[in-house]
Design a protein that fits this description.
The complex is a heterodimer of chains A (300) and B (228). With 300 residues, chain A is an alpha+beta fold. In chain A, 68% of the residues lie in helices and 8% in strands. In chain A, helix 1 crosses helix 8. In chain B, helix 3 runs parallel beside helix 5 and helix 5 packs parallel to helix 6. The chains are: A alpha+beta (300), B alpha/beta (228).
């Protein structure tokens, strides 16, 4: 394309954006609405996954130890477990710590413990696992290996809880693809119709440009660039509204409605999700224009 | 310049718009394609600027076979042809000057040069004071002059005009025809499709007569297949 033709495309875009401002705003608004729904879904999904990650970090294996182990035995035992590649961290809980913790858990009812010796509870290792190994099969395998270690009397882990959490994570991941796919298709259809209407209003222009010998690329280019601008504006609008909504929920949601554990805050979309939304806007605008142009551009 | 060999055009499902046309037009000729409505005049012109594809036969324009062309070659063909229509086909949101300059800009001419040429042509066609006017504010004759200026802005080798006086009163039609003659004097080949027999009488040039899609008479070859 010659420089004069590039400048021609640029001028047509500026002219069209100025003259058909409301048509372009309507198209951008439609894109913004659909991208808002898509972005809202991403936001919910991302926070839900964060929530699940938080819950997942609470999955621990408790290895109760035999009485009478020397400090050197304890140290080597902890080192052995720490060396497992699936293990993220190991914390030693002494008998005294276990007693204090149990008393604290009972709270006002801790009187029931009166008369019991404070070393009645066994010392233990609290083992946290790497994220990739927080599934049922992995946890069971590690527990089995721990049972074989000399000095370990008993091993416990929240079996049922891990299974439910695993199903929930899987459910959210499937929902992301299925619902996300439906939303994307719906967005394509809505945006396609809106762009088609906008192009319909300019079909005479397309016809005349073809009659005077404009190459197909030169006819399409302004529409595609306009589509990209509409898409990026639409995505920015959607992100702006999502941001406002996010601030509203984060700072004004009553504590009773909060679903996240205390201390955790709702997170906004990360850079990758923001980029995805802007890219989708760009793609929808450019793709919608190209797709709709096919109907009005005579081909040979 | 233009050669048609046994050209036929059949519209679906089975409507023969043109049948077995043989025609040869020399460079620099001025030709009227005449005939009643439905005779095939518009179809013939549409085949020449490749808006339609011939069902049968071969069409040569300026030494090139245009019977089968892809999109890029169609665009290049049209850059060498000036087109004028009965309904003007101007963009109402653009000024007369921009409508004319558009045709030059799409072939890669700079904006300054396109506008300079457009301005020069509009002045030559008597629209010096109307270059900023938008088509809806112009009379039919003025709009047709803008369309003619657009057809001429790329110095075409051929001008095809389909009923260019169809929407004009007698005086404007006469004036428009004089403009075509002026262009023809510079050596441009002109083909005008018209059903107006009065024009043929006033402007004595070669006439090709079509009837029901068939070439019935050609004043150049004195061929006459019409029934007495």
């Amino acid at each position: 394309m010659k420089f004069a033709q590039i400048s021609f495309v640029f001028r047509r875009v500026v002219r069209s954006l100025r003259e058909l401002l409301w048509t372009h705003l309507l198209t951008s608004g439609t894109m913004a609405m659909t991208l808002f729904i898509f972005g809202g879904f991403l936001l919910i999904q991302e926070n839900l996954q964060g929530l699940l990650r938080g819950w997942g970090s609470q999955i621990q294996i408790f290895a109760y130890l035999e009485n009478g182990l020397s400090p050197a035995d304890l140290q080597s035992l902890a080192a052995e477990v720490r060396a497992y590649p699936e293990v993220e961290s190991v914390r030693f809980v002494s008998k005294a710590e276990a007693w204090e913790s149990f008393k604290k858990t009972l709270g006002t009812q801790s009187g029931v413990l009166e008369g019991l010796p404070p070393d009645i509870l066994p010392s233990s290792l609290e083992i946290a696992l790497e994220r990739a190994h927080r599934q049922r099969a992995s946890v069971a395998g590690i527990a089995q290996r721990l049972r074989g270690i000399k000095g370990v009397s008993e091993v416990e882990y929240p079996d049922e809880w891990i299974e439910k959490l695993g199903l929930l994570v899987l459910g959210v991941q499937w929902a992301k693809w299925i619902l996300g796919g439906f939303l994307f298709l719906a967005t394509m259809l809505i945006v396609g119709s809106t762009v088609r209407l906008a192009i319909l209003a300019r079909k005479d222009e397309i016809e005349i440009m073809q009659l005077v010998g404009a190459p197909a690329g030169l006819i399409k280019a302004p529409f595609v660039v306009e589509g990209m601008v509409q898409g990026i504006v639409g995505a920015s609008l959607a992100l702006g509204v999502l941001w406002l909504l996010y601030l509203l929920v984060r700072y004004h949601l009553p504590a009773s409605l909060a679903i996240l554990p205390s201390g955790d805050r709702l997170q906004f979309l990360d850079a990758a999700a923001v980029s995805l939304l802007v890219f989708l806007g760009w793609l929808l605008g450019a793709g919608g224009s190209l797709f709709s142009l096919r109907r009005f551009l005579k081909t040979w | 310049m233009i050669q048609l060999f046994r050209v036929s055009k059949i519209y679906p499902p089975n409507y023969p718009a043109l049948t077995d046309i043989h025609l040869h037009i020399e460079k620099g000729e001025f030709v009227f394609v005449n005939g009643p409505s439905g005779a095939g005049k518009t179809t013939l012109l549409r085949l020449l600027f490749r808006e339609e594809e011939a069902t049968e036969g071969q069409i040569i324009v300026n030494g090139r076979n245009i019977t089968r062309l892809n999109g890029a070659r169609v665009a290049r063909l049209r850059q060498a042809i000036g087109l004028v229509f009965q309904e003007f086909k101007l963009l109402p949101s653009m000024s007369a000057l921009d409508n004319v300059a558009l045709a030059a800009e799409v072939v890669g001419m700079s904006r300054t040069e396109s506008r300079r040429r457009a301005f020069h042509l509009l002045r030559e066609l008597g629209l010096k004071d109307k270059h900023d006017a938008r088509p809806p504010t112009l009379s039919g004759g003025e709009q047709q002059r803008v369309a003619i200026a657009r057809a001429l802005v790329n110095d075409p080798i051929l001008v095809l005009a389909d009923e260019p006086t169809g929407n004009l009163d007698a005086e404007m039609a006469e004036e428009t025809m004089r403009l075509f003659l002026k262009v023809h004097e510079k050596g441009t080949t002109i083909i005008i499709a018209t059903h107006d027999s009065g024009l043929l009488r006033r402007f004595q040039h070669r006439v090709v007569l079509l009837q029901r899609g068939r070439l019935m008479a050609d004043s150049k070859t004195a061929e006459n297949k019409m029934a007495p």
